Each structure stands twice: as structure tokens, then as C-alpha cells.
User: Fold BED-type domain-containing protein from Portunus trituberculatus.
Amino acid sequence: MASKRNRIAPVWSYMEQSSSDAVTVTCLVCKDALKFCGGTSSMLKHLHTRHPIEYAELKEDSECDVPEKLARPSTSAQPTLMETMTRAHSYRNDSGKKKELDELVVSRRIVEKTCNHYLLWKTKGSGI
Assistant:
């Protein structure tokens, strides 16, 4: 657990750790008691959801709006969601992959239409 002297996170200007209970912090704005597990995530979330003005001030005072963990490039081989969404890939009209994908799309649409017609027939009084 961090000692008071090395707490440099700006959120500590809005929170105070209980002297009698090491696992509780108190919000100085609303006096709510929060569980403290050694990190500042729950305190930041509390400020963000309960005290948006103070949270905005905190973010203005902070030099970095993005947490360090999110700012670092990923070490995973898997692309991020944003990388996947922004990456455009088109296949040539004569490629086998494009034909395969087109057939899958068409067959799915046929199945969906068939299911929808069946459900419509079933609900409109098929007599069954």
C-alpha cells in the first residue's frame, strides 16, 4: 500500500485515507466512503460519476488525459478494435476469397428470409 508521502496521483487532492481503516478512503467532496485496494481507479470512477465538475478540473490539471496504460502501444500480436475497424481491405472481383464471402452473404440472407417468412406464416395463422 502506498504511504502518504509518495502519493502523487492528482486524485488524492479529493480523497483522504482513513487513519483508523487502511482499506477505506473518504471523498472530500461528498464524504462518501470508498474501498481502497491500493490503486486510484475506484476514486477516479467516483469523481467521474458523482462529481463531474471536480473530475473535469482534475483532468485539466493533469498533463495527460489518457492513462499511461492506454497510451502505451500494445505488445499483443492481435490488432486493437480501432485498428481492425479502420483497416480497409477489399478483394479483387475475380478472387476466390471474394466469391466465397459473397456466397456466404447470399446464403445467410436466404436463410434469414426463409426464417422470417416461416415466422410470419406461423404467426399469421397457418392453422397448425
Remarks:
- The beta strands are 15-17, 24-27, 33-35.
- Helices lie at 41-50, 52-61, 68-71, 81-86, 96-123.
- The longest strand covers residues 24-27.
